[in-house]
Write a structure and sequence with these properties.
By secondary structure, this protein is α+β, with helices and mostly antiparallel strands. It has two domains: about 80 residues, Winged helix-like DNA-binding domain superfamily/Winged helix DNA-binding domain (Arc Repressor Mutant, subunit A), CATH 1.10.10.10; about 140 residues, Muramoyl-pentapeptide Carboxypeptidase, domain 2, CATH 3.30.1380. It is about 45% helix and about 15% strand. The chain has nine helices and six strands.
C-alpha cells in the first residue's frame, strides 16, 4: 500500500498549484531523507534557500514536519545541527488509514484468542510481504550489498520511504564500507506497532531473511524515534562448523623445506 505525500488542494491551477506542488515535493523529501537539513533539501530539489525556508515554515505551521537537533557526523563539541523530520501529526495525515478499525480488530483478536493469535496475524502479513519481495531480492544476487538496494526500493513502493546510509571505517584510500543503515522514514503501521511490538520484531526477522544476514534494529518510530533504523552488515558471517565436526586443521608446520645444513644462525 503506497502512501501519498500530496498536500495540494483539489481544483487549483496556476502559480498557486505550482507552489503547492513544490511544497508536496519538499514534504516527500523530508519523509524519505529525514532527518535532513534545509541546505540538503535545497540542493536535492534545486530550490533557493529562501524558497526552501518558505515551504519548510509552511509545513511546520501545518504540523506536517518538525525540527529535531542531531549531533553532527564529524563529531566534536560543536552545537547540534537543525534537521527536519515528519511530525507525528504528519505521519497520521500521510496514511495511517483505518487505524481505529485496525486497532479494534487486533484488540478483539487478543481478547478472544490471546497474544499468540495476534502474533500469528502479524506473521501472516509478514509472510505475504516475503513472498512478494523474495523473487526480486534474490534476482539481484547473492551478496548483501546487491540485495539491499532492491529491498529499499520495494519498501519504498509500499510506503516505508526507505533509504540507506553507508557506514565506513578508515580514511582516504583505506576507507572501507563495512555496513549500512537501512532507514525507514515512514511506517504505515506505526501506531499499531506502538501497541503491538510483534510488528517490529517480525519485520526485523523479515529483513534478515531476505538479505541473508543477521541484522540489528537500532530504533523504531513505534518507540518514539523519528526514523526506523536497522544495522545491516554487508559481509555475510562465516558459516558455523557442523555439530561434531573436527576443529580446523592448523597450518602445516613442516612446510619449511630449508635444510638445517642450509640455514645460517
Amino acid at each position: 500500500m503506497t502512501h501519498s505525500t500530496d498536500v495540494r488542494s483539489p481544483g487549483r491551477s496556476g502559480p498557486r498549484a505550482e507552489e503547492e506542488n513544490t511544497r508536496s515535493r519538499v514534504l516527500g523529501a523530508v519523509l524519505e531523507h529525514g532527518p535532513v537539513s534545509a541546505a540538503d533539501l535545497g540542493e536535492m530539489l534545486e530550490l533557493t534557500p529562501a524558497a526552501v525556508r518558505r515551504h519548510l515554515d509552511a509545513l511546520e505551521q501545518q504540523h506536517y514536519i518538525e525540527v529535531t537537533m542531531v549531533r553532527r557526523r564529524t563529531g566534536g563539541a560543536g552545537r547540534p545541527a537543525r534537521r527536519y523530520v515528519v511530525a507525528p501529526e504528519g505521519h497520521a495525515k500521510l496514511g495511517d488509514d483505518y487505524l481505529e478499525i485496525a486497532t479494534d480488530a487486533l484488540e478483539s483478536i487478543r481478547r478472544v484468542a490471546g497474544p499468540e493469535a495476534v502474533r500469528a496475524f502479524v506473521q501472516e502479513r509478514v509472510d505475504r510481504l516475503e513472498a512478494a519481495y523474495r523473487p526480486r531480492v534474490e534476482a539481484a544476487g547473492d551478496e548483501v550489498a546487491e540485495r539491499l538496494p532492491v529491498l529499499v526500493q520495494l519498501l519504498s513502493e509500499d510506503g516505508f520511504a526507505a533509504s540507506t546510509n553507508e557506514v565506513a571505517v578508515g580514511q582516504g584510500e583505506r576507507r572501507t564500507i563495512v555496513s549500512a543503515q537501512l532507514c525507514q522514514g515512514h511506517c504505515p503501521v506505526r501506531e499499531l506497532a506502538a501497541r503491538y511490538p510483534q510488528f517490529c520484531e517480525l519485520e526485523t526477522d523479515l529483513i534478515a531473511r531476505l538479505l541473508g544476514t543477521d541484522v540489528r534494529r537500532l530504533s523504531t518510530q513505534a518507540a518514539g524515534a523519528h526514523v526506523c533504523t536497522t544495522h545491516v552488515p554487508l559481509a555475510r558471517p562465516a558459516p558455523r562448523p557442523a555439530a561434531g565436526a573436527a576443529p580446523p586443521t592448523p597450518a602445516d608446520q613442516t612446510t619449511d623445506h630449508t635444510s638445517k645444513e642450509g640455514r645460517h644462525d
